[in-house]
Specification:
alpha+beta; Dna-directed Rna Polymerase Ii 140kd Polypeptide, Chain: B, domain 3; 20 helices; globular
Length: 649
């Protein structure tokens, strides 16, 4: 280095050119906490995240009689009495007073008692307590000591598909499974047994056939069969059984008779001729809508609708039942109603049919009662309590939240077009998860790698504190409801109902005893910065060092350019505590992104693009030390690159 009038000139001898300056190394901490507080945003323009999201998720609070509502209006943060340096010197906490403005609406029933009118509205600002502030160095000062909140690397909400690698049964049969993980709420596990019957568990409780859950979401037996199998329509005309022509189903079959269109002697298909797609199209164009089917061919097929013997007015075959040989004579006589059967290709296992056969529910209410029995074993269910529990478990935003990340992952994995604002489970989600599992069982599709960084995301300090704040608010909510029942609402003010102690207790507990709130490493400035960039797989909602296997600790190809493969402690925490790479950043979904230089026609440009682990797999990524000529063109004839997780030339 040489000095030039006080300015330092830095000589660079590296062979890899750098077109990106080293970013602020504590930006991750500072930006996350700024997003949590949103201090510079007016109250009416605050996004639904951080402190605002925590407060709006609990409010409004309604009493048991629906006669009073406590609404959240806004919050404000005052100035700290002391600066960070004074707090360190005098052993104090660097914090600012948090106040929330709430509105109490008291209602009374009208004479008709069908509606309620507003009797009184009271608005008041309430002091909650002191909220710790982050210093310019990205630390918190708690009782005079500097503490760092380490970011957590945890499994992303969404859906993951896996298999047991043939370890469950001695036969080595591979059993596929799927898991829907919400940000907050009950986990759903789908799994096959050895007989290819699909089961589901809610929160790892006792399993039940997956079709029970589909019925609880509102689907009937025949709707379920139609969703997963092609349906063949069988009609009876003048005592003859005819199948309605369908290109997808009938291509490849052989015709039982000669086929010619009405009012024409032209022969389109000869008896025994194989039906190709073009021949079927020609038949449909000529007005042929159905072809004969033999009764013997229908034996063993599954009926989607009931088959009724019209002469005796009795049901011959129930829905989702196999047509027996004893029904041949009645079918041959033509004294049956029109019916539908499912078409099973030779390569498709009858998974859904077998799963439906394994359970006896026939309606939505019965299915909800079955779900209730699994979630509340030992209790006597009623239809009303079963419906309430089911709706609270999956449709109540306060109890079940996929989060924007979870909805994004579900939409991408299952190719859905559900609104990002719809953060509870939908019937379509369940239908498509089951469909993909059936495909996996048939040897199609791909399973997920749970250690891939596309399936793991970072919870930084702001998000961790938001979750802790929400816990305190839930405790406070119970307290407020009790006070609403006991208080005289005519004279009560909002501050008589709100006791903010649980919130501050939750915040203090987080900073004092959380596994992720640590005394800052002050060995040297580098150790200090490293501590603030650390990622931990441990902590609440994460792994425990006893249960963490080798795979989750190991270096993964998706870590390249995002997580340092070397810096990790020795001992029981090896691989569970890592560090963010220098140029990596965290996007607003919590996924780690790395900068790449775009290559255009063999020339490495100065255009920088940040890609997540999933985005990186869609592009061919060459190594940073690939040989370039003076003009920045890749000089080698063959360049080693990664594409879709594999190395190619």
């Amino acid at each position: 280095m040489t000095s030039n009038h006080g300015a330092i000139k830095r000589e660079d001898f590296s062979k890899i050119r750098t077109s990106l300056e080293v970013p602020s190394l504590i930006e991750m901490q500072i930006r996350s906490y700024a997003d949590f507080l949103q201090l510079d945003v007016p109250p009416e323009k605050k996004d639904d995240r951080g402190l605002q999201a925590a407060l709006t998720s609990v409010f409004p609070i309604v009493d048991h009689n629906h006669s009073a509502i406590l609404e959240f209006v806004n919050y404000s943060l005052g100035n700290s009495k002391y600066n960070a340096r004074d707090c360190i010197e005098h052993g104090m906490t660097y914090a600012a007073p948090l106040r929330i403005r709430v509105r109490l609406i008291v209602r009374q029933k009208t004479e008709t008692e069908e509606s309620q009118e507003v009797r009184d509205v009271k608005e008041q600002e309430i002091y909650v307590g002191e909220l710790p502030l982050m210093s310019e160095r990205g630390t918190f000062i708690i009782n005079g000591t500097e503490r760092v909140v380490v970011s957590q690397l945890h499994r992303s909400p969404g859906v993951t598909f896996m298999h047991d690698k043939g370890k469950t049964y001695a036969s080595g049969k591979v059993l596929f499974s799927a898991r829907i993980i919400p940000y907050r709420g009950s986990w759903l596990d789908f799994e096959f047994d050895a007989r290819d019957v699909l089961y589901v568990r809610v929160d790892r409780r006792r399993k039940m056939p997956a079709t029970v859950l589909l019925k609880a979401f509102g689907y009937s037996t025949d709707e379920i069969l139609r969703m997963y199998y092609p349906v063949e329509e069988i009609t009876i005309v003048k005592g003859k059984l005819l199948r309605k022509l369908d290109i997808e189903i009938h291509a490849g079959l052989r015709s039982l008779t000669d086929v010619s269109p009405k009012r024409s002697n032209e022969l389109i298909v000869r008896e025994g001729q194989k039906l190709s797609r073009s021949i079927i199209q020609k038949m449909i164009a000529a007005g042929v809508k159905a072809i004969p089917v033999s009764p013997e061919e229908l034996v063993g097929r599954t009926a989607v609708t009931e088959i009724v013997d019209t002469s005796k007015k009795e049901t011959l075959v129930e829905k989702n039942s196999v047509i027996p040989e004893t029904a041949i004579e009645v079918l041959r006589s033509g004294k049956v109603s029109d019916f539908k059967v499912i078409y099973l290709a030779p390569t498709v296992a009858p998974v859904i049919h077998d799963t439906l056969a394994a359970e006896k529910t026939s309606s939505k209410d019965e299915a909800m009662v079955e779900v209730y029995k699994r979630l509340r074993p030992g209790e006597t269910p009623t239809v009303e309590t079963s419906r309430t529990l089911f709706e609270n478990t999956f449709f109540n935003p306060k109890r079940y939240d996929l989060s924007p990340v979870g909805r994004l992952k579900l939409n991408k994995r299952l190719r859905l077009d559900v609104s990002p604002d719809d953060r509870t489970l939908t019937a379509t989600d369940i239908v498509e998860v089951v469909r993909y599992l059936v495909l996996l069982n048939a040897g199609k599709g791909e399973i997920d790698d749970i250690d891939h960084l596309g399936n793991r995301r970072v919870r930084a300090v702001g998000e961790l504190l938001e979750n802790q704040f929400r816990l305190g608010l839930v405790w406070m909510e119970r307290n407020i409801r009790e006070r609403m029942t006991l208080a005289d609402l005519e004279t009560a003010l909002p501050h008589d109902l709100v006791n903010a102690k649980p919130i501050i207790a939750a915040i203090k507990e987080f900073f004092a005893s959380s596994q992720l709130s640590q005394f800052m490493d002050q060995t040297n400035p580098l150790a200090e910065i490293t501590h603030k960039r650390r990622l931990s797989a441990l902590g609440p909602g994460g792994l425990t060092r006893d249960r963490a296997g080798f795979e989750v600790r190991d270096v993964h190809p998706s870590h390249y350019s995002r997580i340092c493969p070397i810096e990790t402690p020795e001992g029981p925490n090896i691989g569970l505590i890592t560090s963010l790479a220098t140029y990596a950043r965290i996007n607003h979904f919590g996924f780690i992104e790395a900068p790449y230089l775009r290559v255009s026609k063999g020339v490495v440009t100065d255009e920088i693009e940040y890609l997540s682990a999933v985005g990186g797999e869609r592009n061919a990524i060459a190594q940073a030390n690939s040989q370039l000529d003076a003009k920045g063109r890749l000089s080698a004839d063959n360049v080693s690159a990664r594409f879709g997780g594999d190395f190619v030339l």
